[in-house]
Amino acid sequence: MPASNVLQPWPLQRLHPWYPGQVGGVPGVSTDTGLRQSCEGTIFYVDPNHVDCHDQRDGTNPTSPLATVAAALTKCEAYKGDMIVVMDNGAWQYGTQLSRLLPIQESVVVTVPGVKIVGMAPASSLGVVWSPTVTGATAIEVRTTDVLIEGFAFYGVFDPAIHANYIGYYGDNMTVRHCYFGENVDIAIALEYAWNCDIHDNWFFEVDEKAITNVDPANPAAYNSIHDNYFDDVGVTAVDLATGVHNKIWSNQLWNSNAAVGIAAVDCFITTAGGARNYVHDNTLSCLFAGGLSDYPVTCTPDAAAPNTTDCWVNNHCLEAMSTGNP
Prior knowledge:
The protein is mainly beta. It has two domains: 1-13 and 38-237, no CATH class; 241-327, no CATH class. The chain has helices at 69-75, 257-260, 296-299; strands spanning 43-46, 83-87, 108-110, 116-120, 128-130, 140-142, 148-150, 152-154, 162-164, 175-177, 180-181, 187-191, 198-200, 203-205, 210-214, 225-227, 230-232, 237-240, 248-250, 253-255, 270-271, 279-281, 284-285, 300-301, 312-314. Strands 1-2-4-7-10-13-16-19-22-25 form a ten-stranded parallel beta sheet, covered by helices on one side. It has an eight-stranded parallel beta sheet with strand order 3-6-9-12-15-18-21-24. Strands 5-8-11-14-17-20-23 form a seven-stranded parallel beta sheet. Helix 1 links the parallel strand 1 (43-46) and strand 2. It is globular, with a radius of gyration of 22 Å.
């Protein structure tokens, strides 16, 4: 069978689509004979380091891959289960390693709903390296719904690296997971009127300005889930969802070196100022619960208009105590 037939969403296995009948059938299939068909989704392989890469190919064979993600996006169909698999490279930010020197270096716009863009990095890697085309470029701009982005390491001056952008359609239901954002990134993930996004298991390492931000206060981000991420010395604010509503922010680890030693660090961790009905709980923060210049009420800001009724901040773990209410 061709490599383009896959079982979604994971793993990417090239298996024969028919299974012989067996006693009792196969649980979950529509027949009691155990026959099962493959789904309709197609894998498109991207590998600019492959000697035989070319954007004029169909991209379904990993030995004759496409050269760019942009070309792969033109081949995807809406809600077909299509996946763009981007092969690994050795473009480490401190110097390329051995061979496979070319990073992914594109600015792509996703308008196909339901597509998955996955970096196939080795298990020990931070992700497939993606670098900006020019200073301040955006790597992936999402202008449609139900897009998955996974397994990339964004190095260089991105502003932002990923943008759920409200242009023509909403960037709702976007998932960003297992990605790494390096210290030269200005803004890692920008949410513009985006709802129901799931951002988890990412590492934001010394991002210059903001890791996750609501970029249009007049059209706030809402109903988003931000959990199980690690924020390490983000320059301004780790999670800025000011004016956002109904967002859930939980089980993240947030470190700020200034806050840890009592140097002023205003709103360095989480802010939902001007928002409503946000739920912020069980995050671990490198600040004191009540320690002065960089304690919990300084590093975090809920809605100030009615702090005990519009937001719910509970069980956030500070260095010496656990919070029992809003900052």
